[in-house]
Write a structure and sequence with these properties.
The protein is an alpha+beta fold and 493 residues long. Helices cover 25% and strands 23% of the residues. Strands 14, 17, 18, 19, 20, 21 and 22 form a 7-stranded mixed sheet that branches. Strands 7-10-12-5-13 form a 5-stranded antiparallel sheet, with no helix packed on it.
Length: 493
């Protein structure tokens, strides 16, 4: 009888032995890979392999992927982390923005390649991150697997309450690759955009409308937009009085801290790019040429066109006219829109007029460029400038906006000054600096004195391939377009 009782007890114990060879969960009980567990009423048998008691609370079985900083091109090997869009414990989906990094050429938004939960940030703000090194750790679903190029780290156990909280994720978003790229370039999370397409699909217009609301960027009108005629003279915005009081520069009030100690900082970001570019510019023999431009007619033309541009949602400055006139001049003197190779054996004439505009920002000097000016109207140039200025002020210019320039204009007149000695930005071969517009007395053809709107321009050219006569002729042609804006109509395409 005792033998029968012992046999029955052994059978019951064996029946309650659980052997699991793969990861799976049953109701509220989660089993662990390659674990042998035996449960009795008051004790547990232990086998030679690792074991643990069954618990009613779930534990995480996901994998942690070390998401590495990929090569972002342009030979960049390190970047500065400027802003984190996520924190540890946040849920992310594919194409969601993770952080913004700044190289010595541009600011780039890094997006996620996985759906998962952020477990670790490897860098703090303003720290240097290196290409190929881990940026964040993301916990993903183990059943989906990961690519072989990623390093997987063992997932630490997680309580049931924490696991339940972290399982709450945003809904999947529908968008084409082109729309996703547009969102990525503008630091937009697709989960925050309301789609107006079929099945709530996010369209390009949804991204543009969201960008306009969030950043205040002025977007160009749709090609189908109605072109508004000029307002009658009686309805135009009243012009400001001509005899305004002269503006007196006011120093910026900033708190000054006297620490009494020297401070050493690393050269990073755009400042690092400036060091590299200006060091290369030292190899170029600069030739300088200066002149003054009478902008009296252009000032009046801009005043007449400003209300019309405002109706179209674009702020019209003088720079679009300067840029378009330069492009018309480059058509006649293409050597100024060229580049010279390092061995000084070949000159490449650029087909596109990608004219850069120097901007002074909190991050330092940046030079985004307006692409293909030769096929753009003055209004299209103004619209693109509005976009570049908005992104530049926010520090969100992309690599495409900051590379590929073929000719540059620097408007120092917005700050002050008349003449300058601009430095060429390699591989370009020419640059112009524009001074402030001043009301000065000049003589007309009859010898009468009149008030003229005068601006000074300073040119620098690569004297290895550009002679002084060519630079002077180009400047004279550019000057004629601006002094008589109507003459540009003859050459506009």
């Amino acid at each position: 009888m005792a033998a029968v009782t012992a046999l029955r007890s052994s059978c019951r114990a064996a029946g309650r032995l659980v052997c699991i060879h793969r990861v799976r969960s049953c109701s509220s009980i989660r089993f662990i890979k390659s674990k042998y567990v035996c449960v009795f009423d008051k004790s547990a048998l232990k086998f030679s392999r690792q074991q643990r008691l069954l618990r009613t609370s779930a534990v995480s079985c996901g994998q942690i992927v070390q998401f590495k900083l990929s090569d972002i091109g342009e030979g960049i090997t390190e970047v500065t982390v400027k802003e984190w869009y996520i924190k540890e414990g946040d849920s992310v989906s594919q194409f969601d923005s993770i952080c913004e990094v700044q190289s010595d050429k541009a600011s780039v938004t890094i997006t996620s390649r996985y759906d998962g939960i952020i477990r670790k940030l490897h860098y703090n703000l303003d720290e240097i991150a290196y290409v190929g090194k881990p940026l964040v750790d993301i916990e993903i679903d183990a059943s989906k697997g990961v690519t072989s190029e990623e390093d997987v780290v063992e997932t630490p156990p997680m309580s049931h309450e924490e696991h339940t909280h972290q399982e709450i994720k945003g809904h999947k978003t529908l968008a084409t690759p082109a729309v996703r790229r547009l969102a990525m370039e503008n630091n937009i999370k697709l989960s925050e955009v309301v789609g107006t397409g079929k099945d709530n699909r996010i369209l390009k217009e949804d991204i543009l409308n969201y960008l306009a609301k969030q950043t205040g960027a002025i977007l160009p009108p749709s090609p189908k937009a109605e072109i508004m005629p000029p307002l009658p003279k009686s309805e135009t915005v009243p012009a400001a009085p001509k005899d305004k009081a002269r503006k007196i520069p006011v120093p910026v009030s900033r708190p000054i801290a006297f620490s009494g100690k020297d401070k050493t900082e690393s050269v990073t970001g755009f400042q690092k790019a400036m060091v590299k570019t200006m060091s290369a510019a030292l190899k170029i023999p600069h030739f300088g040429y200066c002149d003054e431009i009478d902008l009296t007619q252009l000032v009046q033309l801009r005043e007449d066109l400003k209300p019309l541009a405002e109706i179209r949602g674009v702020k019209l400055s003088f720079m679009p006219f300067f840029i378009k006139a330069a492009s018309l001049g480059l058509l006649q003197y293409p050597i100024l829109n060229a580049s010279l190779d390092e061995s000084c054996q070949n000159v490449t004439y650029k087909a596109s007029h990608n004219i850069g505009v120097a901007m002074d920002t909190e991050q330092g000097l940046i030079v985004p460029n307006v692409k293909n000016v030769q096929v753009c109207s003055v209004f299209e140039i103004a619209s693109e400038l509005n976009r570049l200025q908005s992104l530049g002020s926010a520090g969100q210019l992309g690599t495409n906006d900051l590379t590929g320039g073929t000719f540059t204009l620097s408007n120092i007149g917005t700050i002050g000054g008349t003449y300058a000695k601009p430095v060429i930005l390699p591989p370009e071969v020419a640059i112009g600096a524009l001074g402030k517009i001043q009301v000065l007395p000049r003589f007309n053809g009859k010898g009468e004195v009149f008030q003229a709107q005068i601006m000074n321009v300073s040119w620098s050219a690569d004297h290895r391939i550009i002679d002084g006569a060519t630079m002077a002729r180009f400047s004279n042609l550019w000057k004629s377009y601006l002094e008589n804006p109507a003459s540009m109509l003859l050459d506009l395409k």
